[in-house]
Structure to design on (152 residues):
């Protein structure tokens, strides 16, 4: 699937969702979706707001929060709480499936991709007759850098 196709596909999924739930299809909501599409990696409300402002697109924080909620509900993005009080988001469409290692000392977030974990998840979902819409695994611990700094 090429970039343009998946962008169209995404708009389609979001449009279907908004229609189904009776939400308005405002240009702001689609502009936010577009902006998120262009991001790599994790983002938060503030970075989203700033990058839109950079492009002279001003949306209210209320609209951002509200649209983020809709994108979460439609399973286009996922919410992460890597550290206390810091909420960030990540797109889950056309993004390689991955999981996160979180350092509880410095807060570093390291991504990894292990197909064996994913195979196991799918097996469990099948066994439990469970339709998995999305998934996420976090490992908490101490990263390599922090380990080096405590062990001279
Ligand atoms: Zn660390
Ligand atoms: Zn990630």
């Amino acid at each position: 699937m090429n970039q343009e196709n998946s962008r169209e596909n995404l708009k389609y999924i979001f449009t279907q969702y908004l229609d189904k739930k009776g939400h308005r299809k405002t240009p702001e909501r689609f502009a936010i979706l577009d902006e998120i599409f262009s991001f790599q990696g994790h983002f938060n409300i503030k970075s989203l707001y700033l990058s839109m402002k950079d492009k002279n697109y001003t949306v209210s924080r209320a609209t951002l929060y509200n649209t983020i909620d809709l994108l979460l509900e439609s399973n286009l993005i996922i919410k992460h709480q890597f550290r206390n009080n810091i909420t960030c988001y990540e797109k889950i469409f056309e993004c390689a499936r991955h999981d996160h290692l979180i350092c509880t000392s410095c807060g570093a977030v390291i991504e990894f991709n292990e197909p064996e974990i994913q195979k196991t998840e799918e097996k469990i979902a099948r066994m439990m007759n469970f339709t998995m819409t999305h998934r996420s695994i976090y490992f908490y611990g101490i990263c390599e850098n922090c380990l080096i700094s405590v062990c001279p």
